[in-house]
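Saturday, quiet lab. Running sequence design on the structure tokens for the scaffold JK sent over.
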């Protein structure tokens, strides 16, 4: 039924590969391609299915991507490489008639800045080609948008306030490590904060606003307001929203390391000259930090990500909290990866499954909330990310 090419062979891609392999009734043919073929072969070995094909590709190079797509002829390309490659992969998909899905919006390498405009600009070309592009189908962005769409469809006539809350209460027993690509992660959390209020975007200093929020099965954790890309599409798609914010938990130890990294210039993304060689300090830092793919074995604890929503239903004020908790050890036992990779890779697979089942298929470039959330929500329960709801509770925000 479905021939899929996945690009990238990191932590998120490894989880998606395990899940694609488990859903072989939907994904009949599967190839993994990345910058290093050996990494793809390692995933195939870990899964133990020699029918999965592998290939080498530099996804910064449109011509190489086109050659691979013309040769393998996938129906859909799942982009689990880095946000830098979104546009080259979309270009190649258009040239080769392939549908497209990713989990993070495009970022230029030389500017730590993310917004959807670059990818939304492809809408007309995908429409004219009769191709579907699904943007931001990880957990956040991804499930956070689907939770919001589900709330809007079933529990609210109008959503007024949306708070996306992302807690990782796990302990990997390292002094400092990021849970996904360190370069992308540190660029994200060291940016200025941004939130939406009464039609305006309000900028804050990085991590300036914080609150103690209580997470189910975890307890209170300090949570910091960050800019996160799904806010941009959600306020556009749900115009009744008056306030939209994103919160992420950080421990004291983590923040101390982050402060030192920034103060000594290691978070810089502009190249410096070192002994006649150009190096980017943040890329060098990535090379010495623990590999997020190797954190799983000793990881304890769990993540909790959800949406806290305030609005009205049938003329009455309503609060609603929908969330998933994911245990790092359970993710590790199933896929060899920790919970942050798991919570991203599983939704990427489900998004592709929605496409191949014909449930999320329409020409153009779409965010996940543009599709029916119901079949996706059902699959979350079946594929390892069960969700829970609280009606009428104290949202703390
Ligand atoms: N939406 C979410 O909830 C969410 C959460 C975490 C991560 N993410 C996104 O998931 C993606 C993957 O994250 P990860 O932790 O697996 O990262 P990773 O660094 O472990 O893996 C990235 C993979 O892409 C490959 N790659 C990089 N540049 C390439 C190129 N030019 N050509 C071919 N392959 C290339 C790398 O070799 C690696 O295999 C990132 O885009 C990240 O932003 C999304
Ligand atoms: N889903 C998140 C994943 C990052 C989790 C961030 N929390 C930090 C906190 C670490 C700590 O306080 O020790 C983390 O890296 O897990 C995303 O979209 O970016």
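Result came back. Writing it out in full:
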């Amino acid at each position: 039924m479905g021939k899929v090419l996945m690009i990238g062979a990191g932590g998120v891609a490894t989880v998606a590969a395990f899940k694609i392999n488990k859903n072989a009734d939907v994904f009949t043919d599967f190839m993994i391609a990345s910058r290093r073929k050996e990494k793809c072969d390692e995933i195939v070995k870990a899964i133990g299915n020699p029918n999965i094909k592998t290939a080498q590709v530099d996804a910064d190079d449109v011509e190489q991507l086109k050659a691979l797509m013309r040769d393998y002829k996938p129906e859909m390309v799942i982009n689990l490489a880095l946000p830098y490659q979104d546009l080259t992969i979309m270009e190649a998909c258009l040239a080769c008639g392939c549908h497209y899905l990713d989990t993070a919006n495009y970022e230029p390498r030389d500017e730590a800045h993310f917004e959807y405009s670059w990818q939304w600009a492809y809408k007309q070309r995908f429409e004219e080609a009769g191709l579907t592009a699904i943007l931001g189908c990880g957990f956040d962005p991804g499930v956070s948008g689907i939770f919001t769409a589900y709330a809007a469809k079933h529990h609210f006539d109008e959503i007024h306030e949306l708070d996306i809350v992302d807690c990782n209460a796990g302990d990997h027993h390292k002094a400092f490590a990021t849970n996904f690509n360190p370069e992308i992660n540190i660029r994200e959390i060291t940016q200025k904060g941004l939130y939406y209020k009464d039609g305006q975007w309000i900028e804050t200093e990085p991590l300036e606003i914080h609150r103690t929020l209580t997470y189910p099965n975890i307890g209170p954790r300090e949570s910091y307001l960050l800019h996160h890309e799904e806010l941009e599409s959600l306020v556009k798609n749900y115009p009744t929203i008056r306030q939209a914010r994103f919160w992420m938990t950080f421990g004291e130890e983590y923040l101390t390391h982050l402060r030192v990294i920034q103060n000594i210039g290691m978070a810089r993304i502009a190249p410096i000259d070192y002994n006649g060689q150009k190096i980017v300090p943040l890329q060098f830092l990535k090379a010495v930090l623990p590999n997020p793919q190797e954190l799983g074995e000793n990881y304890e604890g769990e993540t909790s990500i959800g949406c806290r929503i305030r609005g009205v239903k049938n003329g009455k004020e309503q609060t609603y909290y929908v969330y998933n908790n994911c245990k790092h050890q359970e993710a590790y036992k199933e896929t060899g990866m920790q919970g942050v990779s798991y919570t991203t890779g599983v939704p990427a697979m489900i998004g592709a499954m929605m496409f191949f089942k014909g449930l999320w298929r329409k020409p153009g470039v779409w965010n996940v909330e543009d599709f029916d959330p119901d079949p996706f929500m059902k699959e979350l329960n079946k594929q390892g990310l069960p969700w829970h709801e609280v009606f009428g509770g104290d949202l703390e925000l």
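Notes for JK: The longest helix spans residues 339-356. The mean pLDDT is 96. Ask whether to fix the surface positions before the next round.
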